[in-house]
Design goal:
This protein has 192 residues and is α+β, with helices and mostly antiparallel strands. It is built from three helices and nine strands. Helix content is 22%, strand content 34%. A hairpin with a 3-residue loop joins strand 8 and strand 9. The chain is globular.
Amino acid sequence: MDQSPRASDAPALHRVLHRFFFALKPAPVEANRIHAFAERTATGARLVQRAHQHITLAITDDFQSLPTMLVDAMLRAGKMARAAPFTLTLNRLSLSNRSLALRPDGAVPPLATLQRTIAAAMAREGVPMRAGWRFSPHQTLAYRNGAPGGRAIDGFGWHVEDFVLIHSHVGRTRHEELGRWRLTGGDQLALF
């Protein structure tokens, strides 16, 4: 009988899971402004690292070992996805009982188009989306315990010109960029 330790036997703090997601990352200047805002606003909360700021466009389940074939399929999906560049403004502060996040104050059609295009490319490559996940555009600033709420803010924005594929080493708080694709417009409807 095999006596080697299984990942499920390891203490949760030492287990590393592999998660993959497509995301938008704020421009560096805007990331600095957002981080400074988070420091002022989320006192006592656990802040998201400046380098980890993002808006998730599509995400996989977590994996105990590195799924090389899935990564290859996601890289192909990233190459297939096409959309035009657009300007994004996050001008709503949203507080849940677990987190503090920035959101747009309404629908952003070019953002929705990009997300649908990426989801369609993943489906075409046979990459399943995380079970139960749905797209709700937000950028988490911090993790907290507290009452829910929200308010309008002056906001943060940048011209979105690319999207990335991130490999999150869950349990190590490490993000590794696997691919970056420029938004050039073109044949964004080809996947529908």
